[in-house]
Amino acid sequence: MTLDGAKTEVDQAFTRADLRGPSFENAFAGAVSFLRRSYTKDLTDFDIAVTGVAFDQSVTNRPGTRLGPRAIREASTLQAFDAPYGWDYDAITELAIADYGDLAFDYAKISDFPAALTNHIRGILATDTASVTLGGDHYISFPILKAYAEKYGPMALIQFDAHSDTWPDDDMERIDHGTMFYKAVKLGLIDVERSVQVGIRTTNEDTLGIHTLDARFVHENGPVETAKRIKEIVGDTPAYLSFDIDGLDPAFAPGTGTPVWGGLTSGQASIILRDIAGINLKGGDIVEVSPPFDTTGATAIAGAHIAVEIISLWGFVNRKSR
Length: 322
What we know:
nine-stranded parallel beta sheet, Arginase, Chain A, alpha/beta, disordered N terminus
């Protein structure tokens, strides 16, 4: 039964026939597909594929983000009933969103992981479907960006984070969640003049040319001005949005491996994400949600909301041309 008493099929992650629209099912039961969308590997007629990457073997501090995709999916069921708040359209109703499941990889063959992930995303993009990825630690953005740069050329990176993740590392085979954007710059995957890091509050003197709007900038200038500045930097360049949950202050997202005080509030992040609508977004990820360090589930809830905002940002521009 739906919340209004109407008869419906059971567990729409498997049974729904309509690719669009809300899902009126009990949030506390059933399969935890993202937003109770259909689980499928057939992306025909879909706009966006949500996929999980349960990988945390490149962390420098606390592991646990391999459990992030499952927790974010579970948290997202609370958002399956209603249109995302504050938008002038309903992404859940207007977009066909698939839950593509998780990347399958051999955890004991870490060296094979990067190519497996690039191929995974490459396969999604080959169907002209966008990807929104649930991590997993932040290293996963590097193999994903390889697939996106193949299709769209150097990307404008919009990175929400406490850390720049551009520390020097010329060994392209090393798997480290603190150096992958250094490598992405060196390989030409990122257009540095059109890229911006938001919420930074750890020291790394060499920005490699990437613009920085650090946490203090956001606090002093506010989220509306921050969003305006992001749009000025990015322009019309094809963009990829990567949101490390530690971009939020630990008060709002304690479940992460490398928390740093002084971060963004969830309110600031929500306004920034809404106000950058109109950027030429091609895909994105939400990473570093580590459920073992958050007994309340608040971090996964924030992660689910961010994923929905990424979907809404993509749809704001791309729905008009489909």
